[in-house]
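User: Please fill in residues for this 352-position structure.
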């Protein structure tokens, strides 16, 4: 059977290995955990598993764990009976039941509340669920695919994620590589996305200059494929009637960033030296746990200074889910109010 890629673009060795993992996963009903940085395409891979499985004719249901309202999450996932709580005027089916016969995709599963983790584990073990206010178990049959950009093993160590649930969802683990580790795929992705963007806006497909492509290949892409698509959309808009994309069409802050990068070799050497000094405490190399704790706290200070008291802005800038963000604030005894304390110089010198 020919594997349906579901818009997954790339021929690098790392992506081909991930496609092999998709084929293996699709041939079974075992749970799959997809890990990778934000923007690496975890949902695309989840859809590919579904489309290549025997469940492809049934529903592919997405649960965005980071967007579930805390007070309604149990009802949204498991459904509720009439009169189960104030405002429950009718019986309502939950998202999990909607995936019966198909695939249930838990995006950013690390954001789930521990109480919901426990109930999900029971559902996976018993192949049944109980609605809020319900008195009996209802059978349910679905294939679970979960995704996260967090270190679930670390969360288990910190007692914020259940170890037994991690065992259950990690039947097969697919680790998606960041774009900076497969730069040979950048031209393939760029050409395909330029065609798609042009078609979406009713434009002629733009050509790409060698200089423009070289910049795309050299950039680190911290936001991965999602960021690349964003840059291409802006570049095509900036190009207007010009038939070929050239460096001047890049968004202004990218042009500035690239210019600064090409002219700061000496400054980078100084920054490396300053960063190295942060590892030293009383003339000795700091313990990793201590250095990590201080770096994490410094990052939060900088983040709070930028977000202007808005947790939405903080999560957007950092990539944290809401629960993870507040968990870190509590850990470091910080509040959402804008911080006036400047982060240490060694932290500010790093490219976060």
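Assistant: Residues filled in for all 352 positions:
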């Amino acid at each position: 059977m020919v594997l349906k890629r579901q818009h997954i673009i790339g021929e690098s060795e790392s992506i081909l290995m991930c496609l092999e993992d998709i084929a293996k996963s699709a041939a079974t009903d075992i749970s799959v955990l997809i890990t990778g940085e934000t923007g690496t395409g975890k949902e695309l891979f989840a859809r590919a598993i579904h489309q290549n499985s025997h469940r492809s004719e049934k529903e592919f249901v997405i649960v965005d764990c980071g967007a579930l309202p805390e007070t309604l999450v149990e009802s949204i996932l498991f459904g509720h009976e009439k009169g189960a709580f104030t405002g429950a005027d009718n019986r309502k089916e939950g998202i999990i039941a909607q995936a019966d016969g198909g695939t249930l995709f838990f995006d950013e599963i690390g954001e789930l509340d521990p109480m919901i983790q426990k109930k999900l584990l029971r559902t996976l073990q018993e192949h049944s669920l109980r609605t809020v206010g319900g008195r009996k178990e209802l059978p349910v049959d679905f294939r679970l695919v979960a995704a996260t950009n967090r270190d679930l093993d670390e969360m288990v160590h910190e007692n914020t994620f259940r170890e037994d649930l991690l065992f259950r969802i990690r039947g097969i683990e697919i680790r998606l590589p960041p774009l900076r580790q497969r730069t040979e795929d950048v031209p393939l992705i760029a050409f395909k996305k330029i065609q798609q963007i042009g078609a979406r806006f009713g434009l002629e497909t733009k050509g790409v200059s060698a200089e423009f492509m070289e910049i795309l290949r050299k950039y680190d892409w911290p936001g991965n494929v999602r960021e690349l698509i964003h840059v291409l959309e802006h570049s095509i808009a900036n190009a207007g009637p010009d038939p070929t994309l050239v460096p001047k069409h890049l968004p202004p802050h990218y042009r500035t960033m690239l210019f600064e990068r090409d002219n700061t070799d000496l400054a980078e050497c100084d920054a490396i030296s300053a960063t190295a000094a942060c590892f030293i405490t009383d003339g000795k190399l700091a313990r990793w746990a201590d250095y990590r704790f201080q770096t994490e706290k410094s990052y939060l200070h900088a983040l709070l200074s930028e977000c202007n008291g808005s947790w939405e802005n903080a999560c957007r800038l950092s990539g944290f889910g809401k629960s993870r963000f507040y968990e870190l604030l509590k850990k470091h005894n910080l509040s959402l109010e804008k911080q006036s304390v400047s982060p240490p110089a060694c932290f500010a010198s790093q490219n976060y």
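For context: Residues 281-332 form one domain.
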